[in-house]
Amino acid sequence: MTEKTAAMLRFLLLTSLAALVLAELEPQPRFLEDIAEERVVGGTVARPNSWPWQISLQYKSGSSFYHTCGGTLIRRGWVMTAAHCVDRSRTWRVVLGEHNINSHEGTEQYMSVSRVYLHPNWNSNNVAGGWDIALLRLSSEASLNNNVQLGALPPSGQVLPHNNPCYITGWGRTQTGGQISAQLKQASLPVVDHKTCTSYGWWGSTVKDSMVCAGGGSESGCQGDSGGPLNCSVNGKWVVHGVTSFVSSSGCNAYRRPTVFTRASAYISWMNNVSIQ
Length: 277
Prior knowledge:
Residues 11-26 and 35-40 have low confidence and may be disordered. The protein is 13% helix and 31% strand. It has helices at 3-25, 194-197, 268-275, and strands at 29-31, 44-45, 54-61, 64-75, 78-81, 92-96, 109-118, 134-138, 166-170, 185-188, 191-192, 211-214, 229-234, 237-248, 259-263. The protein is globular. It is built from three helices and 15 strands.
């Protein structure tokens, strides 16, 4: 082997190694619906209506409606969800007081959506760009009862500490490649602080200040659908601190790739401005 050939081989090897490192430094995010075979790891069936602000967002196809995302009832006539859930034109409805999406249990309230408000900075071509939040104006106001309640939102700008206890809820799969659960499920996803989540070998610069990371443990994964709430225990009360946004393209619950949520406290003023219209 000539000196020139050896030098070329060394160059190619170093280039390949650099590409591998770069790939590791830039994990690719994906929305939860895009990896239907790997949506959920762990979780248990929730007690019926124990998360009474959780809603099922459904779209019309033919004469039927089908569940696609979760969401949170934040005012009697308003629902908070992910922008990527509703950034296309469809006929939507929201089901409140839902537990089993395959049966009518008598606790449900069915509401059509009169208007969708996407965050003006949302860009559907940039998964990790942020701004993955939307508000849905319901055609009528919810009747609040034991099965339907408003989700509490955090004060503007509040950031929770590392390992703060939280639960994600939704109608996801019970195991990789398994069946979608008809019943609402819940899974423990403690907060991963911003410094950890954006560090080398974790999500890095993919995660922005306006996001919150949670989970990453073997038992929780990304339980539940996009748009649903991250319910966090703060001073003995449940507060909705996140809107489920994306996971790693290598699958839910990938090592050091906790589920990423839109941080609700970063959008309080925007939501207030929209909901007074």
